[in-house]
Amino acid sequence: MIVVSDTTPIHYLILTGYADVLPQLYGSLVIPTAVHLELTHLCAPESVRQWMSQRRDWLEIWEADTIPDSLVILDRGEQEAITLAMRFNALLLIDERRGRSLANAHGLSITGTLGVLIEAANAQMISLPEAVSKLRQTSFQISERLLEMVLGLH
Fold it and tell me: How many domains does the chain have?
């Protein structure tokens, strides 16, 4: 199965120290060129840029084809990630509400940063309460109510 990621899931998994669950869960991960540019841009946190500067065999960068008109309202990384996921009928890692909505409308299977962390916790790779605590220390935007519900179910 091909797994494609938008910027934010990788960004926050790097910031929290959990990016290495990605190859354990999915084997390999594809990011479009625009996502690579966002993760290596000078505006990205130094730790993210530094992590991205190291070669990882399980992380591939692919060019996206022509972007469907329905996606032009999204930023370039989301456009390219959804386009690649559509092309390969891939699982899409994406957090932004509008992008998730359009990905769903195109029939894609999606999960996000929290979904990856839950999957890793279910596989006993990480402690979910610890991961959520680290996620709360970043600028990741999610309701406290949802986080508490997830922790209560786990």
Answer: 1
pLDDT at 6: 98
Give me the CATH number covering residue 70.
3.40.50.1010
Residue 65 structural domain: 3-153
In this prediction, residue 154 carries a pLDDT of 64
Q: What is the structure's pLDDT at 151? A: 81
Q: What is the mean pLDDT of residues 80-95?
A: 97
The residues with which 92 forms a beta bridge, in sequence order, are: 4, 110
Long-range contacts of 35-42 (CB under 8 A, 24+ apart): 35/5, 35/6, 35/7, 35/10, 35/77, 35/80, 35/81, 36/61, 37/77, 38/7, 38/77, 39/7, 39/10, 39/11
Other Cβ atoms within 10 Å of 151 Cβ, number: 12
